[in-house]
Amino acid sequence: MKGLALISRLRPFGESLLAGLVGLAVGAIIMLIYGFDPIEAYIALFRGSFASLYSLSEALANATPLILTGLTFAIGLRGGLFNIGAEGQVYVGALAAIAMSLFQLPAGLHLIATLLVAMLAGALWSLPAAILKLTRGVHEVISTIMFNWIAHFLAYYLIANILVDPRRAEKTISILPSARFPILVPRTSLSYGILVSLFCAGLVLFLLWYTTIGFEVRAMGFNPAACRYAGIKRWRTALFAFVIGGFTAGLAGAVHVMGRPPSYAIFSGLGGLLNLGFDGLGVAMIGRNHPFGIVLAAIFFGGLMSGGRLMQISPGVPLELIRVVEGVIIIALAIPELVRLFRLFKWPLIWRRT
Amino acid sequence: MTVLDHFWGILFISLHALVPITLAATGEVLGETTGLFNIGLEGIILLSALTGALGAEAGGWLVGLLAGIGTGMAIGLIFGLISAYWRGDQLIVGVGVNLLALGFVAFELIILGAPGFHAVPRAAQVPGINTPIGRDLSPLIFVTLALPFLLYYLLSRTQLGLKLKAVGENPAAADVAGIRVNLLRLLAATLGAGLAGLGGAFISVDWIGSVTKEISAGRGFIALATVVFSGLNPLLVLLGGFIFGFFESLATWISTFPGIKEIVPWQVVAMVPYIVTLLVVAGAIGRVRFPAALGRPYIRE
Nearest CA to CA, how far is B179 from chain A (Å)? Predict the structure, then answer.
C-alpha cells in the first residue's frame, strides 16, 4: 500500500511533465512551420537555462518573482477563488518599493521597511476585489482584471511624473543601495531575493497545511457547501486568500526591483515587470498549486525565459515563442483526461488511479 | 467647433468602439447560456486581429473578416471540446488561450519584420459607407447592432433557444429529454467565439487598420463584464456595449483635446473605462441570475 500511495503522489508530477512535453512539442511544430530547426533551438534553450552556473543563476533570478506570483494564484485557487490580480499587485508593490527610495534610512532597516511597504501595497491593491466579491458578488476574474489595467496606467503615471529620475526621463529613480539585495552569485543577476521567495513558499506551505485558517481555506475550495454546514465563514477564507496573495504579489514586485541588476528601477514601458503576474499563473498551474511544485515550476519557467534569450540569438527563434509554449502547457493541464488520451502508448501502472 | 459637434464626434467613435465589445459579448452570451464560461475572449480578439490583417492583405477585406471568424471558431471548437467533452476546467483553458495568443501575436509580428506593429494597407480595409446618420461609417456597425436582436429572438422565441437554455440550466434533465448536451455546448462555444473573432478582425481590418501586440487592450475582459451587466439578455448587451464604447471614446477625446489634456493626465483618462466597468458590474450584480450549470461540465450519471 505504501508503494501505491507514493505512486499516486507522483501522478501530478507526471501530469505536469506530460503537459510540459506537449507544450514543447507544439513549440517544435511551430518552429518547423516557420523554418527553424527545433532541435538546434531546444539545445540552445537548454544551454541557456541549466547548463552552466551562470545560466542556472539566471534561471533562478527569473524564478525569484515567479515563485511569489505563483503563490498568489495558488492560495486563491486553493480557497476556490480565481484571483488573477497578481499582475497589478506586482506593479503596485514595485512602485511602493521605488517610492521608499525617496527616503534615506540605515542600510538593513531600509531593506526591511521597503519590503514591508511593498507587501502592504500589494495587499491593499487586492482588497477592493475581495470586498466587491463579498459584498456585491462581483466575480474576481472581472474585478482583478480591471484592477490590473488600472494599476497599469497608474504605473505609467507615477513613472512619468512622481517617481521619475530627474536625469533620465525614461525610468524611475533607482532603489538606493541601502535597500538593495546583495548579489548571491558574482557576475550574475541572482540576488539574495531568492531567499525571500523560498521563505514565502515555506510560510505558505505552513499556513495552508498546518494552521486552522489554512485548513478552512482549503476546505472552502474543496466543498463550499460542506463548509457552510461546518460553520466556516466565507468572508474569513476569502479575505485571507486575497490578503496573503496580495502580500506575496507585492513582494514579487519589490524583489524584482530591489534585486535585479543593473538598473534597480522601473522603465517607462514597465519592462521586466510585465507579465510576471500572468506567468505566475502558469507556474502555479504546472506546480499543481503546491508551494513545493511552484518552486520547481518557477525554476522551469525561469529557465525557459533565460534559455529563450540564447535561442533568440543563435537559431534566431523569437523569445515570444516561449509564451506560446506556456499557453499550450496550461491548456494541456486543464484537460483532466490528458493522461487517458495518451493511454494508447500503454504506460506503466503509474498512470492508474489508486 | 461647437459643443454639439464634439458630442457627435465622440458618438461617432463610440459607434466603432462598441463593435468589438458587443460582438464578443453577444457570442459569450450564447456560450454562457449553455453553461460555458470562456475567459479566453481577450486572446481570441488578439489572435483574430492578427489573422484578419494577414487575410485582408492576402485577399481583401472580406477574406480578412472571414479569417478572423475562422480563427475564433477554431479556438471556440478547441475550447468547447476540452470544456464539454473532456470536462476540462473552463477558466484554465481560457487563461491558456490568452497566454498563447499573447505569445503568438508578438512572435508573428517579429517574424513579419516590424516588432510590435503591423499596418493593413488602406485598400485592404473595409470600405466605409455613407448613411443619413454619418459619413464613412463601417458596415459592421449595423451588423453589430442587429445581432443582439437576432440572438434575443433565437433564445426567447424558438425551440432551439429553449433547448440551449435547458442545457445551461439543467443538463441532466435536458439529457433525459433527448437533447445532446455536449453537442449544443460545442456549437454554442464555436459560434460564440466566431463572433469574438469577427470583433478582433474588425479592429485590424476596419477600425484601427493595424495590429499591435496589445491591440485587444482588455476588450475581451470588458466584453465579459458586459455579459455580467446584461445578465445574459442580448438586448442589454447592446446597451452595455454602448456604455463601454462611449467611455472609451470619451477617454480618447479628453486625452487629445487641447486645454483639457494639459490638466487631466492621459493615464488617468485611460483608467476610466475600467473603473466604469467595475462600477457598472458592481451595480448590476444582485439583480441578475446566471444558468445553474454555468462553468461546470456535465457528467452523465
Answer: 24
Name the residue with cell 460582438: B23
> Nine-digit cell at B107?
512572435
| A239-258 core/surface letters (b: 16 or more CB in 10 A; e: else) | bbbbbbbbbbbbbbbbbbbb
What residues of chain B lie within 8 A of the CB of A282, using their CB?
95, 99
Q: What is the pLDDT of residues B1-54, one digit of tens each?
A: 577 777 788 888 888 899 999 999 999 999 999 999 998 999 999 999 999 999
CB count, 10 Å around CB of A7?
16
Q: What is the pLDDT of residues A27-73, one digit of tens each?
A: 999 999 998 888 988 898 888 888 889 999 999 999 999 999 999 99
Are the beta carbons of B103 and A337 separated by less than 8 Å? Answer: no
Give the total residue count for chain B. 301
Q: Which of A153, A328, A330 sits opposite B92 (nearest CB)?
A: A330
pLDDT of A11 above 60: yes
CA–CA distance, B200 with B43 (Å, rounded to integer): 9
Q: Is B143 exposed, middle or buried (0-12, 13-18, 19+ CB in 10 A)?
A: middle
Using the predicted structure, report yes or no on whether residue A343 has a pLDDT greater than 90: no
Q: Which of B86, B111, B282 sits opposite A337 (nearest CB)?
A: B86
Determine how many CB atoms are found less than 10 A away from the CB of residue B74.
18
**Phi/psi at A51 (5° precision):** -85, -15
* CB-based contact A336 B275, cutoff 8 Å: no
Q: A160 and A267 in contact (C-beta within 8 Å)?
A: no
Q: Is B268 close to A153, i.e. CB distance below 8 A?
A: yes
Q: What cell was used for A205?
A: 506551505
Cα B34 to Cα A228, B50, B238, distances in angstroms? 28, 29, 20
Cell of A24: 514543447
The ipTM estimated for the assembled molecules is 0.88
CB contact under 8 A, B95 and A84: yes
Contact A320 B97 (CB under 8 A): no
Q: How many CB atoms lie within 10 A of CB A170?
A: 12
Chain-chain contact of B278 with A82 (C-beta, under 8 angstroms): no
Q: Is B221 helix (H, G, I), strand (E, B) or coil?
A: helix
The pTM score is: 0.87
Burial class of residue A333 in the structure, from the number of CB atoms within 10 Å of its CB (0-12 exposed, 13-18 middle, 19+ buried):
buried
Q: What are phi and psi of B258, to 5 degrees?
A: -60, 140
- Alpha-carbon distance B255 to A306, whole Å? 38
- Angstrom distances, CA of residue B134 to CA of B9, B13, B131, B138, B249: 10, 11, 5, 10, 17
Dihedral angle of Cα A53, A56, A58, A59, to the nearest 10 degrees? 180
Strand, helix or coil for residue A289: coil
Chain B hits for A146, CB-CB cut-off 8 Å, are 221, 225, 274-275, 277-278
Q: Which residue of B has its CA nearest to A82?
A: B91
Q: Quick check: B285 and A337 CB within 8 A?
A: no
Q: Which residues of A touch B282 (CB under 8 A)?
A: 132, 136, 138
Per DSSP, the residues of A63-102 read HHHHHHHHHHHHHHHHTT-----HHHHHHHHHHHHHHHTT
- B224 in contact with A, Cβ within 8 Å: yes
- Angle at the Cα of B164 (from B189 to B226), degrees rounded to 5? 60
Question: Is the C-alpha dihedral spanning A273, A277, A278, A281 positive or negative?
Answer: positive
What are the Cα distances from residue B142, in Å, to B21, B28, B146, B223? 14, 19, 6, 18
* B6 phi, psi to nearest 5 deg: -60, -40
